[in-house]
Design goal:
Rossmann fold; 468 residues; 17 helices; 5-stranded parallel sheet; Cobalt-precorrin-4 Transmethylase, domain 1; alpha/beta; 17% strand; binds S-adenosyl-L-homocysteine
């Protein structure tokens, strides 16, 4: 991030606009709509605006390179050509923020795409690199935000001071969240102000709500791509006081959490063991008992090889309220990232997810139950035990030519795949630079993108078939 979004107070003084034609008029409309007082110099002398200026527009016939700049709070150049560059240099010499439209190299600030809902303003920037993308994002945000969201901000603004005296310090944030999320907010967004004020009075008179206990939410972080979080997961993350996360959680996902939330890594770190499951239970319970909104963030889904079952049992035993938000498990992440349909008409009629962390896990697996050729087998934590997985499946009678894929760091920018046949599984695993990775075994792998991309001759030679 090179440009920090800040909001300029337009009551502080006039903005100087230099330029002509439609670009200048567009900037003028923006500035006037935002309530600015504008001094405008158009080199072509055409000051036709086409908009009501409410007396806030002053036309400047003098050379803007020679005028007094005292009191001006910002300079905007649009459709000003070389004069714009000279003006920008002058503004910089005076320490004034300056924007030259579409020329970030001459600008000390850039104007974002804006969603304007009165007091609620969303600014979208791409560092000046991709204005079209910013506009697309704006359209999306426009559809997300309720029309009266600005009214809600204004409503809270009116009541915040008077009511904050009534509500105890520690309960204040929770109180206003109840305003936003509960019946008060709903009434404002419906345009029913009187009803909203009545609901607000009722809420303020019910201090029972200030003693709300803490709450734990188990959230599935998915395999890595933060855009794969569910809407609910995102909301919970943004609402968290404290986040206990595993080493598998990508930093991109963690960054979607509330900025002020405390983050605690409870998983293993490279070369260091984790704190242990019992210690994790204790931490969750203690944090909830302190009244915190606790998020337990786990890679993939909490209930797929995630020990989520044990954690909710511990919470139940401790009488802590909790909820579970699902995540995309690694198998499904790999399926979409590499186009591996886990089932396929007539080819793959069932799926088994299994774990083979250690040799002894692999020994505990009943491989004989996995001989069905129409079954896709997905192995979690199977990198080290790959030779045992191969041995188990071959001994049970699966063909050494069964297609297999090793899919690593799926949905992350550096995801990697190695595809081949069961007989070569350990060699394929060795091609993987770094975990985590899952193994997918079954006919369906032939549909995957890496399989299709493979040079057929290479594939044949990996099968031991040489060309004449
Ligand atoms: N709860 C997780 C699984 C935890 S077990 C889930 O639902 O996905 C840890 C194993 O998950 C890893 O050893 C690996 O086999 C798999 N895994 C997790 N994230 C992965 C990723 N981004 N790419 C490939 N495999 C992953």
């Amino acid at each position: 991030m090179r440009f920090l979004p800040v909001f300029l107070d337009l009551h502080a003084g006039p903005v100087l606009l230099v330029g002509q034609g439609e670009p200048a008029r567009a900037k003028l409309r923006l500035l006037l709509a935002a309530g600015a007082e504008v001094r405008w110099h158009a080199p072509d002398g055409n000051y036709e605006t086409g908009v009501a200026d409410a007396g806030r527009l002053t036309v400047l016939h003098q050379d803007p390179l020679a005028i007094e700049l005292g009191g001006i709070i910002a300079v905007v150049c649009a459709g000003a050509g070389e004069l714009g560059h000279a003006m920008a240099a002058r503004a910089r010499r005076h320490g004034l923020p300056v924007n030259v439209m579409d020329e970030p190299e001459h600008s000390s600030f850039i104007v974002p795409a804006i969603v304007d809902r009165g007091d609620v303003v969303v600014a979208i920037g791409t560092g000046g690199a991709a204005p079209v993308l910013a506009r697309r994002l704006r359209e999306k945000i426009e559809t997300l935000l309720p029309a009266r969201i600005g009214d809600l901000a204004a409503f809270i603004g009116r009541w915040r001071k008077p009511l904050s005296r009534e509500v105890a310090d520690h309960a204040r944030r929770r109180f206003w969240e109840q305003v936003v999320d509960g019946p008060v907010g709903a009434a404002v967004l419906e345009g029913r102000q009187i009803e909203a004020e009545r609901a607000l009075a009722e809420l303020a008179a019910a201090p029972g709500d200030t003693s709300v206990r803490g709450f734990v939410t188990l959230v599935g972080a998915g395999p890595g791509d933060p855009d794969l979080l569910t809407v609910k997961a995102l909301r919970v993350l943004q609402d968290a006081d404290i986040i206990f996360y595993d080493e598998l959680v990508s930093s991109a996902v963690l960054d979607r959490g509330r900025r002020d939330a405390t983050r605690v890594l409870v998983g293993r770190r490279v070369g260091r063991p984790g704190i242990g499951q019992d210690a994790i239970h204790r931490l969750l319970i203690e944090a909830a008992r302190c009244g915190q909104r606790v998020v337990r963030l786990k890679g993939g889904d909490s209930f797929v090889f995630g020990r989520g079952g044990e954690e909710v049992a511990a919470l139940r035993d401790a009488d802590i309220p909790y909820a579970v938000v699902p995540g995309i498990t690694a198998a499904l992440g790999a399926a979409s990232a590499f186009e591996v349909p886990l089932t396929y008409r007539r080819q793959a009629l069932r799926i088994t997810f299994l774990t083979a962390h250690q040799e002894r896990d692999a020994e505990a697996v009943d491989w004989g139950a996995l001989t069905d050729e129409k079954m896709t087998v997905v192995v979690y934590m199977g990198m080290t035990a790959a030779p045992a997985v191969r041995a188990g499946l071959l001994a049970a009678g699966r063909s050494p030519m069964t297609p297999v894929g090793v899919f690593a760091r799926v949905t992350r920018p550096d995801q990697q795949a190695a595809v081949g046949v069961l007989d070569n599984l350990p060699e394929l695993v060795a091609e993987i630079a770094e975990g985590p990775a899952i193994l997918v075994i079954g006919e369906v792998v032939t549909h995957s993108a890496p399989w299709r991309a493979n040079n057929p001759f290479e594939l044949l030679s990996s099968l031991g078939i040489a060309a004449e």
